[in-house]
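From: lab user (bench 3)
To: helpdesk
Subject: output format question, protein + zinc ion

Hello, I'm new to running complex predictions and I'm not sure whether the block I got back is the full result or only part of it. Here's what I submitted:
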Amino acid sequence: MREVLRKCAVCGGMKDKKELLRAARTGKSFFIDLSGKGGGRGAYICREGPCRETAKKRRALERSFKSPVPAEIYEKVVSV
Ligand SMILES: [Zn+2]
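Helpdesk reply: Thanks, we reran it on our side. This is the complete output you should expect:
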């Protein structure tokens, strides 16, 4: 099976999709895509290590989505 690598929005590391948390946006709504199958534009964050906390501190998703990201999405990033 071919591994599907995606880039972490925080550290820039390339990882297998299974090792990353996917945040997604469709239109104006943001969600955490736990199945990895949700549509929309996605951004990935390492599940392990400090990237989730760093994403919240630096609001790293705003760069990926090029728009403000609601605080509750960052809460979910660190809590799911
Ligand atoms: Zn990372």
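A quick orientation on your result: The mean pLDDT is 94. Let us know if anything else is unclear.
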